[in-house]
Amino acid sequence: MGLLSLARVRSPWLLHFDCGSCNGCDIEILACLTPVYDVERFGIVNMGNPKHADLLVVTGPANRRSARVLENLYEQMPRPKIVVAVGACACSGGVFHACPNVLGGVDKVVPVDIYVPGCAARPEAIIDGIVLGLGRLNGNGKRDGAAAPGQS
Questions:
Q1: If you count Cβ atoms within 10 Å of the first and of the last residue's Cβ in the chain, which end, N or C, has fewer?
Q2: Residue percentage of the chain with pLDDT more than 90
Q3: Given 3.40.50.1580, 3.20.20.105, 3.30.750.24, 3.40.50.12280, which CATH number is that of 3-137?
Q4: Which residues contact 39 (CB under 8 A, 6 or more apart)?
Q5: Phi, then psi, of 63 in degrees rounded to 5
Q6: Whether this model's pTM surpasses 0.85
Q7: How far apart are CA 149 and CA 129, in angstroms?
């Protein structure tokens, strides 16, 4: 493993994007940044620039309005990159699945590596999903057929 790969795994930068959720999962992601859960102990830093991010954490269902923005953010991220879908809406469309403007889960727009289900997903599950994604960023694990944390 090269120095750059080691640095990406030891200090990953994540980009959070809300596709149009109810903000329940967004609040839980922000709770992960507080001293109670403290994701910085894993070296994780919340980043606002997709060109510097290693992980894309997405909440909310993919809809017609946000799909182009989500694709644009995904394409701007350097490779290798990990996408984490947080919440039932990001995984499958959730309660919004029958709305005419909703395409479904985030995987209808960009490839998703890790699914973190829940409405709203708990901070512990979000942290487990991100740490699982770091293992895939390291090269351990496969990209297709990613399971949710706690599932085999």
A1: C
A2: 18
A3: 3.40.50.12280
A4: 32, 33, 127, 130
A5: -125, 175
A6: no
A7: 6
